[in-house]
Amino acid sequence: MKSFKSNEALNVSAADLASQSAGGTHRSTVAKGWIVEYNRLVGEAKSVFPQDHHIQGLRSLSYGGDTHQASGSVATASRGLETYMKSFK
Asked: For 23-80, how does the pLDDT look when each residue is reduced to its tens digit (9 = 90+)?
């Protein structure tokens, strides 16, 4: 079952990213890296679940210059993706 394995991998990746970003950072390179990783996860989810309207509606994040805001946005969005991926179990 490809989608279950992909779902589980996305779930774990989103959970890891949420945990990392929830602590925040003062370094813009770290915050930007989290945004890049979240956007990669969204792209992967969209390719694995092309018929899922919730997944297709996910938006990418962008860096607005504030590391704390970026960290919070990534943590929140990643937890949302993680929660939704868990619903497939």
From this structure: 999 999 999 999 999 999 999 999 999 999 999 999 999 999 999 999 999 999 999 9
Q: Which SS3 state, helix, strand or coil, does residue 66 take?
A: coil
CA 38 to chain centre: 4
pLDDT digits (tens, 9 = 90+) for 22-32: 999 999 999 99
User: How far is residue 57's CA from residue 55's CA, in Å, rounded to a whole number?
Assistant: 5
Burial class of residue 70 (count of CB atoms within 10 Å of its CB; 0-12, 13-18, 19+): buried
Burial (0-12, 13-18, 19+ Cβ within 10 Å), 1: exposed
> What is the end-to-end Cα distance of the chain in Å, rounded?
12
Contact (CB, 8 A) for 45 and 38: no
